[in-house]
Amino acid sequence: MMSFVQRFLLPGFVFQGIVVGGGYATGRELIEFFLPSGPLGGLLGMVMVAVVWSAVMAVSFELCRMSGSYDYKSFFQRLLGRYWFLYEVLFLATMTLALGVIGAATGEIIHDRFGLPQVYGSLLLLAAIGVLVFYGTWAIERFMGFWSLLLYGAYIFIILRAVSLFGDGIWENMTASAPDGPWLVDGLRYAGYNVAAVPAVFFCLRHITKRREAFLAGGLGGLIAIFPGILFYIALMALYPEIGAASIPSVVLLDQLAVPAFAIAFQIILLGTFIQTGVGLVHTFNERVAATLADRGRRLAEWQRPLIAAAILFTALVLATKIGIIGLIAHGYGIVTWGFILVFVLPTLTLGLYRVVRRAKAAA
What we know:
Blueprint: H1 2-21, H2 28-34, H3 38-67, H4 72-80, H5 85-114, H6 118-135, H7 137-175, H8 183-194, H9 211-236, H10 249-257, H11 260-295, H12 304-323, H13 325-331, H14 333-363
Helix pairs in contact: 1-7, 1-9, 1-11, 3-8, 3-9, 3-14, 5-6, 5-11, 5-12, 5-14, 6-11, 6-12, 7-9, 7-11, 8-14, 11-12
């Protein structure tokens, strides 16, 4: 059973943990990207996201297995040749933004819930990330898998509670009008931005030993990652159109669900998703450093991993709060999004797919 989970489900859970905590956990991303096309159009856009994520992961997982490239530097050196650094530039910008955002958000939750200074939230996030990256892959895999299941349970409760209270309203809002807006393009944009997290899954692909396992794990990965978002989005439509103006839609929805104990539990789960995002991104960078050192006959010591995590998170928080890096990157959001599509999505689904097919034919 554990082998099945590690091969087919764990990659999707890891990817889900990163994109949820760094993205749609508050509901704001879902509103920004998908609601402009209307309730039904937004849902179609999310289906588009699932298709892109599953396709990119299926091909890239097989490329990893074929070449043994389990860090993003090695992977993109084989995919893009000397232009591999283009992904790293985009990844580092995205990682800085995501860590800055989740660090600030953790501080806000700790302050609002317990009345403690926001810096305590950032220190809590740093400590949790540091402990997990110190113990390495086995600890990260287990934490990511367990917390993703917990997150699934939370979103299932939200949709069931929302349907029981506002079922008729949700149905009316979802079917009141035909899709209106560029839902296809918006879905592609959202998918393209978040594929930055796909290489963060590479470290747990060593359990995959066959082509069909790579394709199945990748195909399931896109579905696993987007399904909680679909449940959340449908529940949010109970409050349409007013929910579009909410700065943190999840807070508004939880208030309407009127289950105070669950609202507290969901905030705790939300903190865990922030840790998932931070761990996934930092561990990805650590694996890149470890692979580079291994090529030079050196080894990245375990005690060095949390130090790298601390340096990265501290830098992200300083840039986010002092220099305004969040606003700077927000203005370049479209550039980063289309950058990932050009550097990762298109090469993977063209050149990468060609190599996979060629290898399959050669093996046959």
